[in-house]
Amino acid sequence: MKNYTITVNGNVYEVTVEEGITGAAAAAPKAAPKAAPKAAPAAAPKAAAPTGAAGAVSIVSPMPGKILSVKVKAGEAVKKGDVLMILEAMKMENDIVAPQDGAIVTVNVAVGDSVESGATLATMN
Asked: Which of 29, 39, 26 is CA-nearest to residue 9?
């Protein structure tokens, strides 16, 4: 097996490829931790986390858009279905919700940020 790091539209993926097998041999890509988050505006600071500290569950953007509001902070407990943030895409407001009960570990976006599809918005345990 060989491991590769691939960057697509600014998103970094770790990919493992098996050798010597015919047919499709690539494993599903896993999102790698971002090298450094963008600086936050003073009005909406991002959650500070030590390098490499991320939750077990990543909440990713389902489509490209702009963050209209962030309703959670790092360390906050949430329940499945709670609205974490609102993403504007194609002039519609989309609720980004918690996929499970847990605690928010990191918030990787701030109000006004533009995000691409698949970008990690937050992580949780």
From this structure: 29
> Per residue in 53-104, pLDDT tens?
677 899 999 999 999 999 999 999 999 999 999 999 999 999 999 999 999 9
Q: Supply the DSSP symbol for 108.
A: -
> What's the alpha-carbon Rg for the chain, to the nearest Å?
16
CB crowding 59-72: b at 16 or more within 10 Å, else e:
bbbeeebebeebeb
Instruction: Give dist(CA 73, CA 30) in Å, integer.
Output: 25
pTM of the model: 0.56
Q: Tell me if residue 15 falls in helix, strand or coil.
A: strand
